[in-house]
Design brief:
Low-confidence stretches: 504-515, 517-522, 590-611, 988-1019, 1060-1074, 1076-1113
Structural class: alpha/beta
CATH architecture of the domain at 3-217: 3-Layer(aba) Sandwich
Length: 1113
């Protein structure tokens, strides 16, 4: 994240791994700037590899670069960490034994906190040459670059001290909890001493130089006071300017009267600069009454804070909540937010919580980073009298105790175990019995002496002078093979670098070596990890999660913390704010056994820890010291997704895998809820489109930021922005995303026959349009199978691969193949198959005894006296067949897998609420409908006709569509990196003008006598160049389409085709292969009892039982 700098022409950002080259070159210029460029011995190195190691393992690394686009070069660098470079990671003992540092005496301030591991940061490297140093580069540059360098040096005159102060300023500004800075060197470095660091004298020689500085020596401390009536005149210009105003102006806001009428329950707090007394912050704070506090507790999800019950003074009966009615804070002074909040509690010493109400979709200013967002409870749009109720704003809450310094202590003795037991015995919000039991076992096992127990660590997070336990962690050290097992299954490498010190020597991976030969030469112990088995912090202190995990890494000598979660083993919701999900690799899963033995028993790697049990559906969350120092961008925008289609799942997955964003307010509305992955069902009733892996899909279950509402959309209020669900739930939204898929319906031909017989739409006819429909079918199959007197058939009605999949699912349920009939109204081969593959499937079914009727449709249905389906008559579709070729079947169930359509509830709602509709929802190239807050993609949507006759979304890979939809929406939310002028510059109102060719739109205009109705802007009337330019504005989807279904006897049918909007190397015509489930698609099994058939299009071979034959085309 880039930050502005007081030095003109210089930008300070987080360091990149690629900066190491420039930094190493800069170190060679020591002779030209001894004050700003240290010798390599001072900080212990200066090579490219050294800087790569610093950037990868430090908590905070900052790089100063020139902000000129033509000359983006590195001009400075600083590295900070919770671990001193070259010293013992557990440095508290070293500090106590060899140095006497008294922060209170040094700063002459008795309120300064003691030095603790949790409030201290080590400066491990500083590189801050003056701008004149770069004059040596000018002579070596080309003419154009030389001019850029000369302009930069002339425009940006700064010295090394100014650059050093800027780097320190930005580091402490992002680390609000840090009060102390320490720096350990092996030689003098003048810059450190001249900017406020005081050298500390060691008790013994040979320890090197140690420098200390308090936060206030680096940052200008603000002057905090109560407001005065004179502040009114100073504040009005700031209010008019608007910058820094966080809250909306309350109604009847009279600042002058508020300043005049301050008392014990209403106060105005002001922050101003020390030297110029310029006003930079103001907060109007009042004490809420007990009734107001109760109202807020009922309106918002405050259970995690125990509805603001007192933490310390349990007997307190008065209100415990403060409310900031108005807040202004200059963002340039965000480094002093903690001081300002602490000062607020000074004037309200008996209150423990402070809150502020703001719109949900506000981009959180730095002031709110220490507050916790609480969503509203169940919303009701009307009261008992039928009056409309406004949707409440979002609530941000802060607990005063989160400002206190915390300490970390390992469980080492029986007294510690007793304290853990006492902590577990008390009722704790969000602490499940299973986690509580795990903590007890971990605390007791930490006292055992065996080698394995030594790798299990139990730690406590403590608070206050009494060192009360407020958090617990149970971790296990991971072996090097454990880390590599994770790397083989999850793409951790895109976030971190391995083998930095050792270098990228991959000689051990040469194919001339055996699989285990010199395996230890390749394994690196640099990136050691810990497995977090359990982690819990009292919600009032959950801002300490980062600190807790960071110092667990320090105490364990590790660089990465990982959590393996699943649908059954959930992580604390607060962990989502600091841990990053690692995307699973799209490779064959490399699993390890739960017993601790590797797959290859001949491994010669010494394992000090048992291998991890990596289950197929685990989701890996990880954090490093570096990532823990990066504040995730918290997005509280309310996003409501309607429809659990493949597009909707891909959309959600993309949002959840943005590593630096944390979405807190996502709601999924679906008839079937959050459905499991296709392979997690006992049987496969739908064709696998292969968009998401099981591990990718499982992330949706384990990330608790998704709230699921089971039901169907029945109404939409565009003015007040909420949707109505058929179960009585009302969900407010800032953005509504429609990703409803198409479900099977009763085909018109069969529906007409039902109506002729006067039967209900469900009498013996089951369209597979939901999980309930599948459960109903399975139940009827069981009843039919148990009824010995009923030997009627089950007809599967459908022409595509889905119908074949349904037949397979029925057979896998154990139903007799001889009583299953596949009725295909189409005479042609299914789109997903070629002729050879289709004939194999037909012969396969015939071999089992299942009949396949091609080119037949239902012509008559007969029902018995109990209105149950008894007979179906199937006639040939083609008139060329004989009239007497009709087939009459005893039939109890017709399974419809032919015609699909959008949920009629969704279509009715959109049509009723004037969302432009033409059989499907009309969207722009950015998926926006006519309502700028409503987006749509997938089968429910179609691009506006302004782009001509575009393909259906069914012809695109749903994963591509969902990913692109998420990225476009993030651009609208405020993520600059996702803003694309092609999608984010058009005016939403253009939709109304661009869709004049829409038939529904045109009809409405014609009925009102508008001449504009004759407008017809289609691609056919454009020039070829104009048509191509218009099409270029459409999204491009590159991934191919795929279909796969599983047969009995472990056979798999797979087909793949190119996406229609782009050209790929995949054959444009769909083809298919039928292979044994355990074999490769390109393998050929030769045996006397098998027949090899080759598909010419792919030139690949597969095998099938010799009893199945293929009819030549």
């Amino acid at each position: 994240m880039d930050s502005t700098c007081k030095i003109e022409g210089v930008l300070i950002r987080r360091s990149l791994f690629s900066d190491a080259d420039d930094l190493a070159e800069l170190m060679k210029m020591h002779d030209y700037a001894a004050d700003g460029i240290p010798r390599s011995a001072v900080f212990g190195g200066g090579t490219k590899q050294f800087f790569q190691h610093l950037i990868e393992t430090s908590s905070v690394t900052l790089t100063a670069v020139s902000s000129t686009p033509e000359l983006e070069v590195v001009v400075g660098f600083a590295a900070f960490s919770i671990v001193p470079e070259g010293l013992d990671p557990i440095w508290e003992t070293l500090l106590q034994e060899n140095y006497s540092i008294d922060p209170k005496a040094i700063t002459k301030d008795n309120t300064v906190e003691d030095i603790l591991c949790t409030n201290t940061l080590w400066l491990n490297f500083m590189l801050c040459p003056p701008v004149t140093t770069h004059l040596t580069r000018v002579s070596r540059e080309t003419n154009s670059r030389r001019h850029d360098w000369e302009a930069f040096i002339a425009k940006t005159p700064y010295d090394g001290y100014s650059l050093c102060e800027e780097l320190l300023y930005h580091a402490l500004g992002t680390q609000q909890h840090v009060a102390h800075l320490l720096c350990h060197t092996h030689g003098k470095f003048n810059v450190i001493e001249n900017i406020g660091f005081a050298e500390q004298t060691p008790k013994s020689k040979g320890e090197g130089e140690l420098y200390y500085a308090h936060r206030n020596r680096v940052l200008d401390k603000l002057h905090l006071r109560l407001g005065r009536i004179e502040d009114y005149d100073d504040f009005v210009p700031l209010l008019v300017k608007g910058t820094g105003v966080i809250t909306n102006l309350p109604q009847d806001f009279y600042l002058e009267e508020i300043l005049k009428d301050q008392n014990q329950e209403n106060k105005v707090l002001v922050a101003e600069t020390q030297k110029t007394h310029r006003l930079v912050g103001m907060a109007c704070v009042r004490v809420l009454s007990s009734e107001e506090q109760q109202l807020i507790s009922k309106r918002y999800q405050t259970d995690s804070f125990q509805k603001f019950a007192p933490v310390r003074n349990r007997s307190q009966t008065t209100s415990n909540l403060l409310l900031i009615d108005f807040l202004y804070f200059n963002p340039e002074y965000c480094f002093s937010v903690t001081d300002f909040i602490r000062y607020l509690y000074v004037h309200f010493p008996t209150h423990e919580y402070c809150a502020v109400c703001l719109p949900h979709d506000i981009e959180e200013p730095p002031f709110l980073h220490q507050f916790r967002y609480l969503p509203i409870r169940k919303y009701q749009p009307h009261n008992a009298r039928g009056e409309s109720l406004p949707i409440p704003d979002g609530l941000w809450v802060h607990c005063r105790y989160s400002l206190d310094s915390l300490s970390i202590q390992l469980v080492n003795d029986k007294n510690d175990v007793a304290q853990v037991e006492e902590f577990m015995d008390a009722p704790r919000y969000g602490l499940t019995p299973a986690v509580s039991t795990a903590f007890r076992e971990s605390a007791n096992s930490s006292l055992e002496d065996d080698e394995m127990a030594g790798n299990h660590i139990c730690a406590t997070l403590r608070w206050g002078p009494q060192r009360d336990i407020v958090g617990l962690a149970s971790v296990q050290r991971m072996s090097v093979p454990d880390m590599y097992a994770l790397r083989s299954n999850y793409d951790i490498d895109q976030f971190t670098h391995f083998n930095i010190k050792k270098g990228h020597d991959y000689s051990a991976t040469t194919i001339s070596l055996t699989s285990q030969d010199k395996k230890e030469d390749f394994y690196s112990e640099e990136m050691r990890g810990i497995l977090v088995k359990s982690l819990y912090i009292i919600p009032a202190f959950d801002e300490g999660f980062r600190t807790f995990v960071s110092h667990l890494l320090r105490l364990c000598g590790a660089e990465m913390a990982v959590i393996l979660v699943s649908k059954e083993v959930q992580a604390n919701p607060s962990i989502a704010k600091i841990f990053i999900p690692a995307q699973p690799r799209r490779v064959v899963e490399s699993l390890t056994s739960a017993s601790g033995a590797a797959d290859n028993e001949d491994s010669d790697v010494d394992d000090d820890v048992a291998f991890l049990n990596i289950k197929p559906l685990n989701t890996l969350l990880f954090a490093t010291k570096r990532s823990l120092s990066d504040a995730h961008q918290r997005v509280n925008t309310r996003i409501v997704v309607v429809g659990a289609s493949a597009t909707g799942f891909a959309f959600l997955y993309r949002l959840l895998t943005v590593p630096y964003a944390h979405f807190t307010n996502i709601v999924l509305v679906s008839v079937d809820g959050l459905t499991p992955h296709l392979y997690q069902n006992a049987n496969q009733w739908h064709t696998d489109q292969m968009e998401m892996l099981e591990r990718e899909h499982s992330l949706l279950f384990t990330r608790q930021s998704i709230r699921v509402v089971t039901g169907a959309l029945v109404d939409l209020d565009k003015v007040n922005k909420f949707v109505s669900v058929d179960n009585g739930v009302f969900e407010p939204y800032d953005y509504l995303v429609l990703t409803t898929g198409r479900q099977y319906i009763t085909p018109p031909s069969i529906r007409t026959l039902q109506q002729q017989e006067g039967q209900s739409s469900r009498a013996g006819v089951i369209p597979l349009n939901s999980e309930n429909a599948i459960d109903r079918l399975r139940q009827k199959l069981k009843e039919l199978d148990r009824d010995a007197n009923n030997v009627s058939n089950v007809v599967v009605y459908g022409s595509g691969l889905e119908a074949i999949t349904v037949v397979n699912a029925i057979l896998k349920e154990g139903f007799s193949p001889q009583r299953v009939v596949l009725c295909r109204p189409e005479e042609d081969v299914p789109d997903s198959m070629n002729y050879d593959a289709y004939q194999i499937v037909v012969n396969y079914f015939k071999h089992l005894g299942t009949s396949v009727l091609q080119g037949y449709d239902a012509s008559r249905l007969e029902f018995d006296d109990e209105n149950k389906l008894r007979t179906v008559v199937l006639d040939p579709v083609s008139h060329e067949r004989a009239a007497d070729s009709a087939i009459e079947l005893n039939c109890s169930i017709i399974v419809c897998a032919e015609t699909k359509d959008i949920d009629p509830n969704v279509l009715s709602t959109l049509n009723k609420r004037s969302i432009v509709f033409d059989g499907r929802v009309i969207v722009e190239n950015n998926y926006r409908t006519t309502d700028p807050s409503v987006f749509a993609a997938g089968p429910v949507a179609m691009f506006t006709r302004r782009y001509g006759a575009t393909e259906s979304f069914d012809d695109f890979n749903a994963k591509d569509v969902g990913y692109h939809l998420a990225e476009v929406l993030m651009g609208f939310i405020g993520f600059d990196e996702f803003v694309d002028p092609k999608y984010h510059t058009s005016n939403p109102s253009e939709m109304n003008n661009g869709d004049k060719d829409n038939t529904l739109y045109t009809k409405v205009l014609e009925e009102n006598g508008s001449k504009v109705a004759k407008h017809n802007n289609v691609l056919g009337e454009m020039t070829e160049e104009e048509a191509l330019e218009t099409l270029r504005r459409l999204p491009q989807y590159s991934s191919p389409l795929a279909r796969r279904t599983f047969f009995l006897h472990d056979f798999v049918f797979s087909a793949r085709a190119a996406s229609t909007l782009t050209s790929t190397s995949v054959p444009p015509s769909p083809a298919g292969i039928l292979i044994p489930r355990t074999a490769s698609a390109s393998s050929t099994t030769s045996s006397p009892s098998s027949l090899t058939i080759t598909l010419a299009l792919w030139s690949r071979s597969f095998t099938c039982p010799s009893t199945l034959t293929s009819t030549p085309a």
